[in-house]
């Protein structure tokens, strides 16, 4: 039976694009050492440690590629096949699959990481988690400093008045959080 018979044309195009121009770096011990352990302090890396036989890992794979596309230029994504690279996964104390780790900005080495503990392993959840790991350029505005910071500023400002529990507002804030062109409050 044809592997593409049950795929929509957009899924086939996405698959071909991923093959020709992969956004996720397949990491082995040498690449992990070079790209993760010896990375610069201004790089954010997200790494998926997986096993090919693992059902949840198989479900995560296409989402992981979509996350890489969404975060292109913001974070780099890698994956480690723990069946093929057992020594690397063992040295990193990976014992369950999938294990998703972030090697954050401002840190170096492979021992400083955050593990994704979210229930959902979809694009929106993983991208939101990645944005939370980035340094923020958001200024907290209070009624005491609003006039001086915003109203008297010669620069344009984007001010988001929101309640933290409102998901669309939180998403907007996370999206604007890393804006370097416009001050965000």
From TrEMBL:
Protein's UniProt name: Putative dnaJ-like subfamily C member 10
Domain of life: Eukaryota
GO terms under cellular component: endoplasmic reticulum lumen
SUPFAM superfamilies: Thioredoxin-like
Source organism (scientific name): Stichopus japonicus
Ranges of residues in domain Thioredoxin: 20-135
Any single Pfam family the record assigns to this protein: Thioredoxin
GO MF: misfolded protein binding; oxidoreductase activity, acting on a sulfur group of donors, disulfide as acceptor; protein-disulfide reductase activity
GO annotation, biological process: IRE1-mediated unfolded protein response
């Amino acid at each position: 039976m044809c592997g593409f018979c049950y795929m929509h044309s957009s899924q086939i195009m996405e698959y071909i694009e991923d093959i020709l121009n992969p956004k996720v770096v397949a990491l082995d011990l040498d690449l992990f050492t070079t790209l993760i352990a010896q990375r610069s302090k201004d790089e954010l890396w997200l790494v998926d440690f997986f096993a090919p036989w693992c059902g949840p890992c198989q479900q995560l794979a296409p989402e992981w590629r979509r996350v890489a596309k969404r975060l292109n230029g913001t974070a780099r994504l890698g994956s480690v096949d723990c069946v093929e690279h057992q020594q690397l996964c063992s040295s990193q104390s990976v014992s369950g699959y999938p294990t998703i780790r972030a090697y954050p900005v401002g840190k170096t080495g492979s021992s400083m990481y955050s593990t994704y503990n979210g229930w959902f392993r979809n694009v929106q959840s993983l991208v939101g988690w990645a944005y939370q790991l980035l340094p923020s350029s958001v200024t907290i505005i209070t009624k005491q400093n609003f006039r001086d910071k915003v109203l008297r500023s010669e620069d344009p400002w984007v001010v988001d008045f929101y309640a933290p529990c409102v998901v669309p507002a939180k998403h907007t804030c996370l999206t604007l959080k890393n804006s370097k062109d416009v001050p965000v409050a």
